[in-house]
Amino acid sequence: MTPLPLPLPRVPPPLQRPATDAPPCHRAAEERRAMLGLGTYGTAREAARAYDAAAWRLGRPRGQMNFQDVYTLQQALDVAPPPRLNTAQDRVEHAERQRRLLVAQEDERVMAEWRRRHPKDVAYEQVYWARRREEDM
């Protein structure tokens, strides 16, 4: 007779996840238990308002809300801002930023490999720049 596997401990999911503290164009809110993407907002306050509206819709108790000044679902919906729309221009700018980031990461990787393979050149370069700084003074 084979032993039965032990059941995994039951860990309750976190009750709420507030808005992330990211740059304004990347702030987003999400309701964790239901995995609802609530959109992208300009400020953490707007993202928190959107989170509260979603939490009201899911029947969360008022004590779990970010703002205690809202008493009904309708009030929560009224104060929650609409998510920022991603336009074609936003997507083009994002793709360009991603491309530049990949180029910079590859450049850093190649330079690290060069430094590892050519330590004498690295030492020479450091001496060269030290002399240049002395001459500029």
What does it look like?
Mean pLDDT is 77; it is low at 24-28. This protein is elongated. It has helices spanning 44-57, 73-79, 88-117, 119-136; strands spanning 27-31, 36-41. Strand 1 (27-31) and strand 2 form a beta hairpin. It has a two-stranded antiparallel ribbon. It folds into two domains: 24-79, no CATH class; 88-136. By secondary structure, it is mostly helical.
Write a compact overview of the structure shown.
With 137 residues, this protein is mainly alpha-helical. It is built from four helices and two strands; from the N terminus they run ββαααα.
Radius of gyration over alpha carbons?
A: 26 Å
SSE order, as H and E?
EEHHHH
Mean pLDDT: 77
Q: Give the terminus-to-terminus CA distance.
A: 84 Å
Instruction: Decide which structural class fits the backbone.
Output: mainly alpha
The tally of structural domains comes to: 2
Number of strands: 2
Unreliable runs: 24-28
* Net shape: elongated
Count of helix runs: 4
Widest sheet: strand ordering: 1-2
Approximately how much helix is present in the residues?
40-55%
Largest sheet: 2 strands, antiparallel
Note the beta-strand portion: 5-15%
List its salient traits.
4 helices, single chain, two-stranded antiparallel sheet, 2 domains, 137 residues, mainly alpha, 2 strands
Strands, helices and their partners?
Blueprint lengths: L26 E5 L4 E6 L2 H14 L15 H7 L8 H30 L1 H18 L1
Antiparallel strand pairs: 1-2
Helix pairs in contact: 1-2
